[in-house]
Amino acid sequence: MVYPPGQSSFYPACPIHQYLHIDCPGCGATRALAALLRGRVAEAMRLNALFVVLLPFALAGGVECYRRAMRAGAFRWPQPRAPAVYATLAAAALFTIARNF
């Protein structure tokens, strides 16, 4: 890897971690993605489990957006249902609390 996330200053610092000294739900996601790309699933889960769990859903959403963009007619963004949005926000909040204790 040319610029490893843990050893390079190329990547921006998290402002929440920098100023509040707590890990946000996204802290470690870049390192987790780098670990996944090298096939290290356990390391990725240790770095940011929420990112690893939600990644398949994000990829499915990206595929759906691409599918809609390739169809004839006006493009419409997928609209997630309110319970799914609230459940994701609640999971992010609980994950943040759990990883900082």
Structure, described:
With 101 residues, the protein is an all-alpha fold. The protein has four helices and no strands. It has helices spanning 15-20, 29-37, 41-70, 82-99. The chain is globular and about 45 Å long. The relative contact order is 0.11. The model has no long low-confidence stretch (mean pLDDT 88).
Binned, the helix content reads 55-70%
Structural class: mainly alpha
How many strands, what sense, and barrel or not for the largest sheet?
Answer: none
Beta-sheet strand percentage? under 5%
The DSSP helix count reads 4
Name the poorly predicted regions: none
Distance between the termini: 32 Å
Query: Quick one: how many beta strands?
Result: 0
In round numbers, the mean pLDDT is 88
- Which descriptor suits the 3D outline? globular
Assembly classification: single chain
Helix/strand order: HHHH
Q: How much is the radius of gyration in Å?
A: 16 Å
